[in-house]
Amino acid sequence: MRILLVCPGCPETFWSFKHALRIISKKALLPPLGLLTVAAMLPPHWQKKLVHIGVQPLQDRDIDWADYVFISAMRIHKESVDRIVTRCKRLGAKIVAGGPLFTAGYERAQDIDHLVLDEAEMTLPRFLGDLAEGRPQHTYNSHQWANLESTPIPLWDLVDMKKYACMPIQYSRGCPFCCDFCDVTKLFGNKMRTKGTRQILAELESLYVRGWRDPVFLVDDNFVGNRKTLKEEVLPAMIDWMERRDYPFRLSTQASINLSDDEELMGLMARAGFDTVFVGIETPHDEGLAECHKSQNRNRDLAASVRKMQSFGLQVQAGFILGFDSDTPSIFGSLVQFIQESGIVTAMVGLLNAPVGTKLYERLVKEKRLVQMATGNNTDLSMNFVPRMSYDELIAGYRSVVRRIYSHKMFYDRVVVFLQSYRPVRAGRFRRHSYDVWALLKSMWFLGIRDKGRIYYWKLFVWSLCRKPRLFPLAITLAVQGFHLRKVFADR
C-alpha cells in the first residue's frame, strides 16, 4: 500500500513567520506533527511519502503514485484543502481525512472518501482493520479520549529537518479551564492526559540521534495542566537527560498564567531547558476576562505575573483579543500600554471569533449574531459574528493597536524592556554553524540597511552587544521576528 500524507498550505499569518524564515534560510516553522504521528501508526511495510505544501509543491505524480491520500487540517487550511481535494478527485485518488477541520464539521466532507475523526489513536485502527477486510466505512469517530501512552514516536524520517526552524513534540492533551472562545476542551477534554516520562524522553532522544540541535516546541495547549506529575517525575527526568547531553535543545511551550504562582515549577522548567512560554492573557480589563470565563487570569496583577515568569528565565509570548461585548474604546489604549510596560515582545493581538463547538458559538447562535464560519486566522480582520461595538470602530481600533505596538520605535523599546528583566538560566549563543553567521548577516542587510527602521535595529544591536552580550543572539532573533510581524500587519 502506498500512502501520500499531505499537509495543506497555510496563508501568511502571525505564526507563519514567513518573512523571518527567509532570513534564517528555512522553509517552514514546524513540520506537521499530526501527520507524522499518523504515519507511525500505519503498517511499517507500507510505503509512505509526506508532502508539506509550502516546503515543497504537491505534484500530480505524487497523487498518481498513492493508493490513498491522507489529509490532516485545521480551519485555517480550508482553502488549501479545497484545492487539494479538487485535484485528488480529478485524478481519481481516494482521500482519507482527519484533524480539527473535519472533526468540527466540514462543508465538503461529502467529497472525502473516508473521514477518520477525533483522536487517531481511537479511530485509525478501526479504519485500518476495515480496510484490511475490504469494507472501509465513510466515517469513523469516537466519544472516548485516547490513552497517550499508546501514541507512537512521530515518523521523523519522512521530513528533511534542515528545512524547518523548530521540531514539535507533544506531552499532554486537554486543559482544566473552560474559556468560552476556545475549542481545546471540545477537541481534547478538560481532563489532562499525559504521556509517560520514558515516552517523552524517548521522543527527545529520537530527535537527538537524528542530529537535531535547534529549538523544540512542546505543542501542548496547557503544558502545566498537571503540575504534580511535572514536578515530581517529568521535569526532573528531563533535566537529567538535558544535562547529560549538554542541553542540545531550547524548549518552548504554552501555559496558563497561573504558572507564575509556582516558583518551583518555573525553576524546574528553566533548568529543563525551557526559555519561552506562550500565555493567553486576552485582555487587561477584568470585565472581558469575566465575560469569557477566563477565571485563572482574574484577581491578579497580570503584568507582575509576566515579569515574574521572565525573571525565572521564561520569555513570555502572549495572545490578546479585541471584540468582547464588554470592550469600550478605552480598551485600545489600555492594551497598548499593558503590552509595552510588561515587555511582551511577541504579542499576538487578534479579533474575537467563535469556533464551532465552543460555548461562545452556542451563545451567539442563540442570540442570532453569527454571520459566517470562523476563518481560523484571528489577525485577518474577519469576525464571524456581529460585535457589540460597531465593526468599523472596532477595526479602526484594532489597526491602531497593531500599528503602534509593531512600529519600529515601540517594538524595539519593548525588546529592551524585556531584556532588562529577563534572567535566563542558560543564555543562548550563536552556534558555530554557517547558517547562524549567514542569518546574522542577512538580518543586517534586511533590517540594518533596507528597512526604514534601521536606526532602531542598530541601536538595539549596539545596546545588546555592550549591555547584554550574553543575550545578543536573542535580541537579533527578536528583531527578525519583529520584521515579520510588521510585514504581516502592514499587509492587513
Description:
This protein is an alpha/beta fold. The chain folds into three domains: 2-140, Cobalamin-binding domain (Rossmann fold), CATH 3.40.50; 166-421, Alpha-Beta Barrel (TIM Barrel), CATH 3.20.20; 434-491. Helix content is 43%, strand content 13%. The chain is built from 19 helices and 14 strands. It has helices at 18-24, 33-41, 60-65, 78-90, 100-103, 120-132, 184-188, 197-208, 227-244, 263-271, 286-291, 302-311, 330-342, 359-366, 391-405, 408-421, 434-450, 454-467, 472-491, and strands at 2-7, 47-52, 68-72, 94-98, 114-116, 139-140, 167-169, 172-173, 193-194, 216-218, 251-254, 274-282, 315-322, 347-351. The strands form three sheets. A six-stranded parallel beta sheet has the order 2-1-3-4-5-6, sandwiched between helices. The two termini are 45 Å apart. Residues 428-434 have low confidence and may be disordered.
Strand-helix topology:
Blueprint: E1 2-7, H1 18-24, H2 33-41, E2 47-52, H3 60-65, E3 68-72, H4 78-90, E4 94-98, H5 100-103, E5 114-116, H6 120-132, E6 139-140, E7 167-169, E8 172-173, H7 184-188, E9 193-194, H8 197-208, E10 216-218, H9 227-244, E11 251-254, H10 263-271, E12 274-282, H11 286-291, H12 302-311, E13 315-322, H13 330-342, E14 347-351, H14 359-366, H15 391-405, H16 408-421, H17 434-450, H18 454-467, H19 472-491
Parallel strand pairs: 1-2, 1-3, 3-4, 4-5, 5-6, 7-10, 10-11, 11-12, 12-13, 13-14
Antiparallel strand pairs: 8-9
Helix pairs in contact: 1-19, 9-10, 13-15, 13-16, 16-18, 16-19, 17-18, 18-19
